[in-house]
Every structure is written in structure tokens, then in C-alpha cells.
Amino acid sequence: MEIKANDLKKAYENNGYLTGIRVLDKDELALTTQNFSVLEDKFGKVYAQYNLHNVHLQYKWVMDLATHPLVLQTIIAALGPNVILLDSRFICKYPASDVPHENNIAPYVAWHQDIRYWGFEGGPVTSVWLALDDVDRENGVLQVIPGSHKLGLLEHGTGAIPGNMLTSNQEIPKNLVEAEKAVECPLKAGEMSVHDGLTVHFSEPNISNRRRCGFVIRYVPTTAYPVEDPDRPRSFPATVLIAGDDTFNHFKNNAPNFFVKPF
Question: pTM value?
């Protein structure tokens, strides 16, 4: 186990991402799919595209995903033993037959670095995409540029092409993106990819007739703290200490009553 953790940490530090890591077994995946379908039916697919945000505080099954032992094994290898769950969101790209594209514009995610949005010092942000559906080129697979996390924070402007799903419509200018080095991260349902907050990445529109849905989870070590930015006020109302101890107290522990810290 220790050798595996060291290997994960080395690969993550060298490349800025990991992919194809199996998390959910057949039964866990079936239950997760069933539970998500309940939310889809309750709120509707248009809402479920991007608005199921931080529901780990409301639903135990969602918190169980964010703290799944196989997820935390990788996160602790990357960040160390003291970890805060920062934020979570279900992101779904539905085919146009299920959710017609507004103004006939297909949603996509522009080239960006997560840290530009989150704004932290003192430690990295790590993002997980836990696939609820198979993900491939046709339905908008994640693409990353290996090693780009070593470049530091790049300039971000405003997305020029309509349909960018990023909340602030941020985008790295094309001249700063080495798109020819991009690597696709296809996943089977129940697998996850993990990437550093400085890793440059994007995903194209879903042009298939299949849904592409995933659970996106952000983690930080307890050493991390948010940077004050008057132009981009930030709040973190859903932070939970999920592993180890927090001696820094940069974030409130909003653990719901049903949560028991596994580590």
C-alpha cells in the first residue's frame, strides 16, 4: 500500500494528473446511478447540468462518494494526511435530445486552471472527476496538458466562444495553451481522474446521444488558505475536515451530523 501511495504521489507530482483509477464496484455504481436519478427526477435535467452544488452536506450517499476509501487513498497520497473537502458539484453534459442547447449552443469547458477560480496559497487544490457515465471523445472527455502545473498560474481572460460552462467564463488565451500536447482522459463509469489546480485542462461539447455526467470534488490540505481578492469575492460554505487534523483552522468544519471522519 505504501509503495502504491508513493507511486501515485510521484506520478501526480510529475504529470499534474492521474486517470483511470477504479473507485466504485458494480453494486456501488448501480446504487449511485439510482440515487442520482432521483435527483434528476426531482430537480430536472436542466437544473442537474450544473446546479447540484455542495449537496454532500444534504445527502449521505454524496458525502460517502466524496470520502470513499479509494478516493481518499489517492487524495492523501497527493496532499498528505490532513485534508479538507472544499467543494463538490455534479456536472452533466446532456445530449441535445435530452436538454436542447440554448440558442443552439453546445456547452463546453474552456482551457483553464482551477486555481484561478479558487485562489489559494499555502497548499494546492486537487480536483476529482468521478465518472457516473462512460466518458470518451464523443461525449466531451477531459483533456489535460501533462506537466502544465509546473508553469505556475497563467493569464486568464474572458471566454470568446459562447457556451463556456465555467462560472466566471474564464479562459486561458490560445497562445498560452500548448494544445498539441493535450492528453485525453477517457473513463469508464465508476472510475476517476484527478488533477492539480494548476493543471491546464478543458473539455469539448457532448456531440453524442449519451449523457456525460460526473461528480467533481475539490480538496485542499489544511495548510491552504484563500487569497483575498476584491474583484472576485469567495466563500466556502461547505468545507469539511475529512482526514487527519486541522491545526490551522483556515476553514470552518461544516460536517453534517451524519458524517463520521474515516481517517
Answer: 0.92
